[in-house]
Automatic annotation (TrEMBL):
UniProt xrefs under PROSITE patterns: HTH_TETR_2
Alphabetical UniProt keywords: DNA-binding, Transcription, Transcription regulation
Gene3D superfamilies, per the entry: Tetracycline Repressor, domain 2
Pfam families per record: TetR_N
DNA-binding region: 34-53
Coiled coil (UniProt feature): none
Organism annotation: Motilibacter peucedani
Protein's UniProt name: AcrR family transcriptional regulator
Molecular function GO labels: DNA binding
């Protein structure tokens, strides 16, 4: 028996399913939201859902891929721009802080997902690890332009600062959390010239 491949072509129904799932998964958690709810809120039929996503896990993976593309779209222009590496890192921290301060902030979509999928063999868990490895590698490459000897450790520190801020940002004052994140990242960077 062969399983039918999902229809990955862009369509309004697929876009509605993914947008709906992204909103409710992020706001309420993945396991707490069933396919029936996503189908109903997206105003599609179950047949349409299954034409685009063979199962819920496929929808969850699409949600994480969409979140990954969004983060990369924020970071990539900073990497391609003319900013010095320390300013790139400050801009990444500022973008994270902006997210923490945003309405409806519920933490990191990836950390939230991995908490619900703790099995390292799970495709969802693997998708989270792939995103995090890309983010760590990206930061390390920017830190290497400042000091290659400390780049890996500095990138790991940045990721830990980010993780802590993403967790604290939905529990405590987002302004204070954002300021703490930015100060922490500044502490990883050389002092600006003339300071």
């Amino acid at each position: 028996m062969t399983t039918r491949e999902p229809d990955l072509r862009p369509s309004a129904a697929r876009d509605r399913l993914l947008a709906t799932a992204s909103a409710v998964f992020y706001a309420e958690g993945i396991h707490s939201v069933g396919v029936d709810r996503v189908v109903a809120e997206a105003s599609v039929t179950r047949a349409t859902f299954y034409r685009h996503f063979p199962g819920k896990e496929d929808l969850v993976l699409a949600y994480l891929q969409s979140a990954d593309r969004s983060v990369r779209a924020q970071v990539q222009p900073l990497l391609e721009g003319k900013l010095p590496p320390a300013e790139v890192l400050r801009a990444v921290a500022a973008a994270i802080a902006d997210g923490i301060r945003s309405s409806g902030f519920r933490g990191c979509a990836f950390l939230n997902a991995v908490a619900e999928y703790p099995d390292p063999a799970s495709p969802v868990h693997q998708a989270v690890l792939e995103h995090r490895q890309w983010f760590l590698d990206t930061l390390a490459s920017v830190f290497a332009r400042i000091d290659a000897a400390t780049a890996d450790a500095a990138a790991r520190h940045f990721v830990m600062l980010r993780d802590g801020a993403m967790a604290a940002g939905c529990l405590f004052d987002p302004e204070l959390v954002s300021d703490t994140l930015i100060a922490g990242v500044d502490g990883l960077l050389p002092a600006p010239a003339g300071a």
